[in-house]
Amino acid sequence: MPAGPAGACPRRIVRARAFVRILPALLVTAGVLYDYFTPAEFTAAPFFTAAPLVAAPLYSLRGTVLAGVLAVGAVLVVHFLLGIVLHVDAVTEVVTVTTAAVLAVLINILVRRGDERLASVREIAEFAQRAVLPEPEARIAGLEVAARYEAAQEDAFIGGDLYAVQDSPHGVRLVVGDVRGKGMTAVAAVATVVGAFREAAEQEATLEGVAGRLERALTRAGTRRDGVEAAEGFTTAVLAEIPHGEDVVRVVNRGHPPPLLLRPDGTLAVLSAEVFALPLGMSELGSPHAPTVQDRFPRGATLLLHTDGLSEARDPRGEFYDPAAWLAGRVFPAPDELLTALVEAARRHTGGALTDDLALLAVRRA
C-alpha cells in the first residue's frame, strides 16, 4: 500500500507541469469566451494579459512571442466580431494586451540570460571541483578506491570538505579533511591542503611529517588573510598510509572523526587515538604532535574516511547519525557500493536533506 502514494506523486507532478504548459492557451480561450458572451462594459483584459506573462518563464522566446501574438490576435478577432474595434475601451484593451506581450518577451529574454549565467556558473563550479578534488582512480597499487562529495546545498559543487589519494614510495597515502568556514576562503584552504598533501606524500618518510607539512602550508596561507579567518582558521584532517606489501594501515588524526575499518567478516574497528590532537592550523595553542595508530588491514577489508557531515547528520529529533553502528555486521563487495549505501542511509536518517557537506573516501584491499 505505501507504494501507491509514492507512485502517485510523480504522476501528479507530470499532470501539474502539463497543465502549466497549456495554461496560456486556456487563458486566451477563457478570455475569448468571457469577452464574447458578456456585456460590452465587461473586459477580459486580465485573461489576455496573463497569457503571455505566464508563458514568459516557461516557454522559449519563440513560444512566448507566439503566446503574445495569440493573445493580441484573439482580442482583435473578438472585437471585430462584436463590431467594437474602434471603440475607446476596445482600443485600450488591445494596447494593454500588446504591452503585456512585449513585457513578456523582455522577461523571457532576461530569464534565459539568467539561466545561461547559472548554467555557466554551475559549469565553472564543477570544473573547479574537478580541478581541486579530482576523482581518484578506481584502482591504485592493488587497492580499490572510491570517493564521494555530497553538498548539503542543492547545485553546490564544492565547499570546505576535501579528500585526496596519492601513491608514493612509502605506500598509498590518503587524506580527508574539513576546512573551517565556507565560500572562497574555504575553497582556497582546500586547494592549499590538497596541494601540500600531494607534495608531502611523495617526500615525507612518515605520516607525522606529512601532517607537519600541511600545518606549515596552512600557517603560510593564514598570514595572507585578515580578521577572523586569520585568527580562527583551522582544518581538521585524518591521514592514512597503507604501505606496499604490508597488511597494515597507519593513521594520524588531527581533530577529525576517526576512520572506520570494516573487516571482511563484517566486524568493525574504530581507528581512534588515545590522545586527542589539535586540528591543523592551531599549533600555537599547544603541541601539534599526533600519535600514529596502526591496525591490520587484511585482504577484503575496507578503510572508510569521512567528514563530520556524516557523523553529525541529525534526524528530526536531533539525534546524530552513527555510521559505525550502521556499518557493523555489513559486508559490501566494493567501496563504491559502500559509499552509495552509506549516503542513502544518512539521507534516510535526516529525512532526506543533509545539513552539512560531507566527503567520503573508501579504500579496499582487493
Describe this structure in words.
- The protein is an alpha+beta fold and 366 residues long.
- The chain has helices spanning 3-37, 45-55, 61-82, 88-132, 183-203, 207-222, 227-232, 308-311, 323-327, 335-350, and strands spanning 139-140, 143-150, 161-168, 171-179, 235-242, 248-254, 260-262, 268-270, 292-296, 302-306, 358-365.
- Strands 1-2-11-10-7-8 form a six-stranded antiparallel β-sheet.
- A hairpin with a 5-residue loop joins strand 7 (260-262) and strand 8.
- It is elongated and about 95 Å long.
- The chain starts with a helix and ends with a strand.
Give the arrangement of secondary structure elements.
Layout: H1 3-37, H2 45-55, H3 61-82, H4 88-132, E1 139-140, E2 143-150, E3 161-168, E4 171-179, H5 183-203, H6 207-222, H7 227-232, E5 235-242, E6 248-254, E7 260-262, E8 268-270, E9 292-296, E10 302-306, H8 308-311, H9 323-327, H10 335-350, E11 358-365
Antiparallel strand pairs: 1-2, 2-11, 3-4, 4-5, 5-6, 6-9, 7-8, 7-10, 10-11
